Amino acid sequence: MDENKELTVVEKVEQEAKNCFKQGLNCSECVMTAMLNNFETGLPAEVITLATGFGGGMGHTKNTCGAITGAVMALSAMVGRKNPMAKETMPERIAELQDIYAVVGKMVNEIKDEYGTLICSELSDPLGDWEGKARKRNCMQMITYCAGLAAKYAEENKR
């Protein structure tokens, strides 16, 4: 990459997420941290605690990938409702949710289309070597991809 080239926000988020993983943050924390550091959400830094339990496929159960749940939380911080009761009626609230779900669902489906699954063990540990280097490489790839995709969707859907 050209040293003088200004990085896009997507590239900055990808790079920061990757660096977070190298520093020992879990997959979900990496994506959330990178997004929160590069987008204005009005949320306190302590909100990162919400991401911690999603690492390793939700509490290390190897279920839904933590990078994906981190991307969903991070994108929701950008496009989600700050006050779910702001709309006056229940039908208005439901309609508002449908708009948000459409954006988040599109991102999640793009991840599934790219990788064929959303399951941590299938993405990061297909050979059953949880402690091996291949899993760490696969996790790094998922973290970078999900962080970049969340940034892309956040940029496209700014409120």
Task: Describe this entry's structure for a reader.
The protein is mainly α. It has one domain (9-154). 62% of the residues lie in helices and 0% in strands. The protein is built from seven helices and no strands. It is globular. The two termini are 31 Å apart. The mean pLDDT is 92.
Low-pLDDT parts are: none
Q: Estimate what percentage of residues fall within beta strands.
A: under 5%
Largest β sheet strand count, sense and barrel closure: none
Series of H and E elements = HHHHHHH
Q: Count of helical segments?
A: 7
Number of separate domains:
1
C-alpha-based Rg, rounded: 16 Å
The residue fraction in helices comes out at: 55-70%
Structural class: mainly alpha
Give the CA-CA distance, first to last residue. 31 Å
Annotation, overall tally of beta strands = 0
Average pLDDT figure: 92
Query: What form results from the Cα inertia axes?
Result: globular
Structural topology:
Blueprint lengths: L8 H14 L4 H12 L10 H4 L13 H14 L10 H26 L4 H5 L8 H24 L3
Helix pairs in contact: 1-2, 1-7, 2-4, 2-7, 4-5, 4-7, 5-7
